[in-house]
Automatic annotation (TrEMBL):
It holds the Pfam family Glyco_transf_4. Residues 21-184 form the Glycosyltransferase subfamily 4-like N-terminal domain. PANTHER family: GLYCOSYLTRANSFERASE (PTHR12526). It comes from Hymenobacter negativus. SUPFAM superfamilies: UDP-Glycosyltransferase/glycogen phosphorylase. This is Glycosyltransferase. It comes from the Bacteria. InterPro entries: Glyco_trans_4-like_N. CDD domains: GT4_GT28_WabH-like.
């Protein structure tokens, strides 16, 4: 008995690398969910990084390295364009969806008969990693020149759309916001797993503030330590960091300079994990959610975001969330019926699904912003009914984050792009 050929549209999902990060997790989720309806092939520039989020779908490497001299980088860029163009023809690609800026460029420059979709994971205007001469070239030349050529530009947050239109000139008709999806029930189930006895004793000793994510410039965790040190002068508390990154040693040094006692799982034996510390760096965790659910509050001091996975997961866990009102994502998640304010917050905003707070990266207002954070957390930790109300509201809001809700929008987008194939 012969089987009929797979007539479903062919999708390429393209990302520079398969390393650790929010974009890679979203890429994995898209690959898994879209493969239920389409033929999906993943494309990476090379296989230098381990596949930390395997989807089970075919993966093709363009086998072009990164790094090297400016000349080598330029040559490798064009090799990627050429190889992706050949791959699109070979696989008879119908839609090519790229994740992250480097993949966007080669997706657009290799465009043939297929429809090209860019998925923008975060603000380009507020991304401090886009800096210097190369950053100027990207913002002023490459993005304005190339992004307008896409068939569709999807942003993970509604608040990224204005900068795509106003700064980079993408026509409004090509722009669409589709939020990230979350495995809501899976996260909730994992959050109910018990903690090990030693860390549970820490949670029992005092109210715990927890934060999760890379220890990186974007996440802006250093001022959180200043807030926490001030809070400890008012009441007992613990601060738990779930995650790791390049700023770990700097954060430890900053904490110690503030007189905080620091435990770090990465270099201290488990037996030393006691209730005697103030700050706990527990490192990367296979299940971060069991650290988040029992906390008094989830604190999120980011300088900029897209539609942050860590914040959404904390909401799913049913934990009270306290976040900067940074560009972009937190306001859309915690106060979805409100627009981004014209001027930056200078006081706490008790929103429907959590607290929106001043950003902690503005030198002129930083002293007052640190006091605002300290006062608000002090008030929150003393008000159990308020925390319970906000936690329940956050959990309810997170029901909007399910894959069923999100990928219905992706199916409609693809159907609109390929009306003869998917209707």
């Amino acid at each position: 008995m012969t089987t009929s050929p797979d007539a479903r549209p062919r999708l390429l999902l393209i990302i520079p690398n398969r390393g650790l990060g929010g974009a890679q997790r979203v890429f994995h989720d898209h690959s898994v969910e879209l493969s239920k309806y389409y033929q999906v092939t993943e494309v990476v520039f090379n296989k230098d990084d381990a596949d930390l989020y395997p989807s089970g779908n075919p993966v093709v490497s363009l086998d072009v390295p990164g790094g090297g001299s400016p000349l080598a980088k330029a040559q490798n860029f064009w090799r990627r364009v050429q190889r992706l163009r050949e791959l699109k023809k070979e696989l008879a690609c119908d839609v090519a969806i790229s994740h992250l800026e480097g993949a966007d460029y080669i997706n657009l420059l290799s465009k043939g008969r297929e429809k090209v979709v860019l998925l923008i994971h975060g603000s380009k205007v507020h991304d401090l990693n886009i800096s210097g001469a190369v950053g100027w070239l990207r913002k002023k030349v490459l993005m304005p020149w190339l992004y307008q050529r896409a068939d569709k530009v999807v942003t993970v947050s509604r608040d990224i759309i204005p900068e795509m239109a106003e700064i980079f000139g993408v026509p409004q008709k090509k722009l669409l916001a589709i939020n990230n999806s979350f495995e809501v029930e899976q996260v909730r189930a994992l959050s109910r797993e018990p903690l090990a006895a030693d860390i549970q004793a820490v949670y029992d000793a005092a109210p715990v503030l927890v934060t999760s994510g890379r220890l990186a410039v974007q996440k802006n965790q250093a001022p959180l330590l200043d807030v926490f040190a001030a809070l400890l002068k008012r009441q007992p508390a613990k601060l738990v960091f779930v995650g790791d990154g390049e700023l770990r040693e700097l954060l430890i040094s900053h904490a110690q300079a503030l007189g905080l006692r620091v435990y770090q799982a990465m270099s201290q034996p488990t037996g030393l994990l006691t209730q005697d510390y103030d700050v706990y760096l527990v490192g990367m965790q296979k299940n971060p959610f069991k650290y988040i659910r029992p906390a008094a509050a989830f604190v999120f001091p980011s300088a900029w975001e897209g539609y942050p996975m860590a914040l959404g997961e904390a909401m799913i866990c049913g934990t009270t969330v306290v976040s900067t009102d940074c560009p972009t994502g937190p306001r859309e998640m915690l106060a979805p019926t409100t627009a981004a304010p014209k001027t930056a917050l200078r006081q706490a905003e008790w929103a429907e699904y959590g607290l929106l707070m001043p950003m902690l990266n503005q030198p002129a207002s930083l002293p007052a912003d640190l006091v605002c954070w300290t006062d608000t957390l002090d008030q929150l930790l003393r008000d159990a009914p308020a925390r319970e109300q906000l936690a329940n509201a956050a959990r309810l809001r997170s029901n909007d984050f399910t894959p069923e809700h999100v990928f219905a929008q992706w199916k409609k987008l693809i159907a609109d792009l390929l009306p003869t194939r998917t209707h």
